[in-house]
């Protein structure tokens, strides 16, 4: 079987990204304003701060404008909020995902918020929501970006790695952001149980996105060889400390996706299972090889892939990409480069979704 090169797969996905959304854009309030100092389409990313009264006070974030962004700041562009892992920097997350690289992305504004001490709500090592709540910070960040950049407010998306993927999930559960973000995703994401956190955030008792007039799309990518956040949620064999205490448990990925299918009213009997290898669909009975993905999708309300899971054979704890990483820890734990790029897959999937007018 012939497999296309990773670059040709990414190019095809990018083309799909450009043409999949046909609804007219919904311009933000910042359209037509002069660009902030330090920002230029296709140029270097720039750091900014904002004050979030409910989200921990002074907060930082990194912004990258893609090559196709209007220099006059007058053409609405889609936007991705990209959330780093536990203790990871925004610069590292920028490198890992490639969303600021013109070879990967020429159309989406990429914004990289920074957690306080580089940690997000939803990890057992982070302060609980009564101390620092990152969800209102992201809501305040959306307000700041709305007022300064020309964004298509119907096409805002989130993704995150590990702890950041968990926060992406929490934003889908939080009405002030679930109502403003068109689709959500996580890569090697950590959705901790109430037993691990001491209170419920990710289970149905804590995840209440509100009574929205639409379904909430969610995509998850996870490896079968993840030795930090296990696919089945049982992390008891990982990183047992000097007191004999293992890593805390997370929700099993099928449980997390099944909860979203239930929230969205997706009938369980329309689950579709396929295997995908480097962009080519192969028979579901094919023996799995390195780079093969088991893809599960839920279709509901006439829309396919509303909830989607990629279960990746041979992927450790990491962001799938064809590019070697400069961070030795990140490269080691993901088990090296893959034959495909998660960022291209995410952008293709994001391109399916936009908020309905008036939301």
From TrEMBL:
In its UniProt entry, what is this protein called? Answer: feruloyl esterase
GO aspect biological process, one term: xylan catabolic process
The protein's predominant localisation is secreted
Q: Which UniProt keywords apply?
A: Carbohydrate metabolism, Hydrolase, Polysaccharide degradation, Secreted, Signal, Xylan degradation
- Top EC class for this record: hydrolase
Supply one GO molecular-function term: feruloyl esterase activity
EC identifiers of the protein: 3.1.1.73
Note the superkingdom of the native organism: Eukaryota
**Which organism is the protein's source?**
Trematosphaeria pertusa
Q: Name one GO cellular component term.
A: extracellular region
């Amino acid at each position: 079987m012939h497999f296309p090169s990773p670059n040709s797969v990414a190019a095809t996905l990018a083309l799909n990204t450009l043409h999949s959304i046909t609804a007219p854009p919904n311009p933000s309030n910042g359209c037509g304003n002069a660009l902030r100092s330090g920002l230029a389409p296709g140029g270097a990313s720039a750091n900014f701060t904002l004050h979030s009264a409910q989200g921990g006070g002074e907060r930082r974030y990194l912004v990258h404008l893609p090559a196709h962004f209007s220099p006059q700041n007058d053409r609405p562009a889609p936007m991705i909020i990209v959330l780093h892992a536990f203790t990871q920097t925004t610069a590292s997350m920028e490198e890992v995902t490639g969303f600021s690289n013109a070879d990967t992305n020429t159309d989406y504004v990429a914004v990289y918020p920074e957690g306080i001490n580089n940690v997000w709500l939803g990890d057992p090592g982070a302060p609980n929501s009564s101390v620092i709540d990152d969800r209102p910070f992201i809501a305040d960040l959306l307000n700041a970006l709305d007022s300064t950049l020309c964004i298509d407010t119907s096409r805002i998306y989130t993704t995150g790695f590990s702890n950041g993927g968990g926060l992406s999930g929490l934003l889908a559960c939080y009405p002030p952001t679930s109502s403003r973000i068109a689709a959500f995703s996580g890569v090697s994401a950590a959705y901790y149980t109430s037993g691990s956190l001491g209170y419920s955030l990710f289970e149905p008792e804590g995840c209440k996105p509100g009574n929205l007039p639409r379904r909430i799309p969610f995509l998850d990518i996870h490896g079968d060889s993840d030795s930090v956040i296990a696919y089945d949620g049982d992390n008891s064999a990982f990183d047992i400390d000097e007191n004999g205490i293992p890593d805390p448990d997370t929700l099993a990925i099928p449980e997390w996706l099944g909860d979203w299918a239930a929230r969205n009213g997706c009938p369980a009997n329309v689950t579709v299972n396929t295997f995908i290898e480097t962009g080519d669909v192969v028979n579901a009975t094919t023996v799995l090889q390195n780079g093969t993905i088991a893809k599960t999708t839920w279709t509901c309300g006439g829309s396919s892939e509303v909830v989607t899971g990629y279960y990746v054979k041979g992927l450790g704890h990491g962001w799938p990409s064809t590019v070697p990483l400069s961070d030795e820890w990140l490269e080691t734990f993901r088990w090296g480069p893959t034959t495909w790029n998660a960022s291209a897959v995410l952008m293709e999937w994001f391109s399916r979704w936009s908020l309905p007018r008036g939301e």
